[in-house]
Amino acid sequence: xxxxxxxxxxxxxxxxxxxxxxxxxxxxxxxxxxxxxxxxxxxxxxxxxxxxxxxxxxxxxxxxxxxxxxxxxxxxxxxxxxxxxxxxxxxxxxxxxxxxxxxxxxxxxxxxxxxxxxxxxxxxxxxxxxxxxxxxxxxxxxxxxxxxxxxxxxxxxxxxxxxxxxxxxxxxxxxxxxxxxxxxxxxxxxxxxxxxxxxxxxxxxxxxxxxxxxxxxxxxxxxxxxxxxxxxxxxxxxxxxxxxxxxxxxxxxxxxxx
Length: 258
Known about the structure:
The protein is an alpha/beta fold. It has helices spanning about 40-55, 90-95, 105-120, 165, 170, 180-195, 210-215, 235-245; strands spanning about 5-10, 15-20, 25, 30-35, 60-65, 70, 75, 100-105, 125-135, 135-145, 145-150, 155-160, 160, 200-205, 225.
């Protein structure tokens, strides 16, 4: 079996598709709906269940969640309703979908797994940092292709504010923001990560990655910065990889290149 349902839960939108985990490609049309407001657990799970039903594929489901996830339970939920904290996300989603098996992973970790397995990070050794720029900032850290889960560096305080308050995709979309001004803030964030992690590569994903050419030339960093090859589908693909891994109890990782 190589087809699994991937769910990408974001602060702004929820996306669902079936993924061929052998190739990392979507094998069904992507379904999308706005994240409900307020984004409570019940309201969000209802939307996820509706989208999964539209996809119409049976079997295990993987879901990327925008917060720290430990053994299926949400420990944080910065861009959703705070009532998510302490909720067993996997059990809640399963209950809304007829007790189908559900695996839950941090959304940036999911996107990073997809890029490391199939795309821009596949040949890279050393430390790779995946950064998803959406409503907030998600980060995933890999060392020689192995994930260090739940790295929430978007909440680093730089100056007087958390990084995602001024360097996220949401910050770029605020009235009065310019590409030049926002790029400077993103550079500040990347340089802080350089000081802390000494990475070999930054991979920029999330919705704003489609505009990579508009800001990449303005970044002055020691570390190479590239756009996520899978774009905004990376989270869906990585969530499906988590579902696949749950069937074997092995952590999802890239295929060996050595």
